[in-house]
Amino acid sequence: xKILISGGGLxxxxxxxxxxxxxxxxVVIERAPDLRRDGYGLDFFGAGYDVAERMxxxxxxAKRQIFRxxxxxxxxxxxxxxxxxxxxxxxxxxxxxxxYMGQIHYNLEEVLYDAIKDNVKIRFGTSIKAVDQSxxxxxxxxxxxxxxxFDLLVGADGIHSNVRGLVFGPEKDxxxxxxYYYACYHIPDRHQLxxxxxxxxxxxxxxxxxxxxxxxxxxxxxxxxxxxxxxIPPEQRADKLRxxxxxxxxxxxxLLADIPANGQEILIDSVTQIRMPTWRNGRVVLVGDAAGxxxxxxxxxxxxxxxxxxxxxxxxxxxDDWAQALANxxxxxxxxxxxxxxxxxxxxxxxxxxxxxxxxxxxxxxxxVTYQAFSGLLKEQFVGDSFLKTAALHRLPQSxxxxxxxxxxxxxxxxxxxxxxxxxxxxxxxxxxVNLLLQIEEIAGFKRDALWEDWKFGRQYHDKIGKxxxxxxxxxxxxxxxxxxxxxxxEAQHFALADINQAWExxxx
Length: 509
Ligand SMILES: Cc1cc2nc3c(=O)[nH]c(=O)nc-3n(C[C@H](O)[C@H](O)[C@H](O)COP(=O)(O)OP(=O)(O)OC[C@H]3O[C@@H](n4cnc5c(N)ncnc54)[C@H](O)[C@@H]3O)c2cc1C
Fold this sequence. Notes:
Bound molecules: flavin-adenine dinucleotide
Low-confidence stretches: none
Strand order of the largest sheet: 5-4-13-14-15-12-16
Largest sheet: 7 strands, mixed
Number of domains: 2
Number of helices: 17
CATH topology of the largest domain: FAD/NAD(P)-binding domain
Distance between the termini: 38 Å
Strand content: 25-35%
Shape: globular
């Protein structure tokens, strides 16, 4: 299929890479004239790391990573610059099974660009002004007046997505302001920062600085409580920061004195999540921040942008039915984004505390997670698991009301049950019980922990699953159906794959 991707950022380029791998013909348009935008540092792990591994770009990324030294750390300091608490980046890396990097945003973009530039057309300086879709195709009109027709259109154009505005409606309908603004800018390194990212917090405002990938350069990152003022024009940005940070301690006056004169060099925006009821509209689908911005507080926007692109392309590679593929993509990734949005929302007050007491609590929590025994908290806080581990679970589009079906492709892993639980709970809000279809192709990588998860799942849902249809051709699928009847469901039956329609019928009776 010929697929247009609006936005050559992380989600757009990852989508393009994998669509090409799956035999489609992606074209990327990017509004900016070239690469290298947004020089802020970010944590890169989870699904993003897994996808980057599958693309073979980990080595290229590793060469450009920041926080590469074992002694590098994230620290909170007092007014005099004394370290109150320090979290070693190495500890974070260990909790995430070694799959963690600090990256500068534009380096991720550059590595992605190198990975796709020989196979995918990228048109810089291009944007869409109109979208017109029919049952047969989607036609876009570019800013220069030219038109072009595609099979699908992917909106990968970030939090203020143009495609979302044109096809799904105004941003305000989906924006959830979290009560903060953030800003980031580069400054010369004249502050003798230790090998760490130093942060200083006062009630309702936080400021920090860290070394970028360039010798002699620091990035300053500011997050503060504010009313929603929408877009802040470049000429007002420096004043806005000086007002918000007036009278703040530590080296704040020096960090403010170095604010770039050119307001374009200050990245500033509200901390706003994008929450949508659906990411699909006919032949148009959204990925990355355009679909479900989680904000910098989640620490996973880049990782999930990679994850979205990978999952969408994989679904489009598995079936010729594009509508089903888009539905599968949404069912697979949206709950994962929503989970992370929820966590970010709950974490926000802890991230930038509003009171002295809150700052003390922030320090205590940071101290706790530096202890090995509590390191799991860190993973839990950031939902550090890659959702690709659960990616084998596809909700079937025939699911309706309290009759729900899943195809489990590849490894059946213990964390799959989290997704199952989420979806069953939704149906159980309007019905006393659900009937479940499980189409299982393969059980592999079944860990001992899975039996424990299995048992918990059975205990929680055994009264609530009326019928369970296990669909599959392997011998163990019959065995699974037999075992399920006392464990998970009141009634369970096995069906061969060729008889899947009979399974749906049986469940709907
Ligand atoms: C300060 C800060 C810190 C962060 N920290 C982390 C972190 O630690 N970990 C993490 O995983 N994430 C982090 N994030 C979030 C992460 O950077 C984003 O979630 C991620 O970049 C989203 O990728 P995307 O491709 O969806 O959108 P973007 O990266 O925003 O890319 C969108 C692209 O679309 C282009 N575009 C926009 N409009 C148009 C148009 N009309 N036509 C064509 N193209 C258009 C843009 O120029 C851009 O290239 C952070 C973000 C910020 C701001």
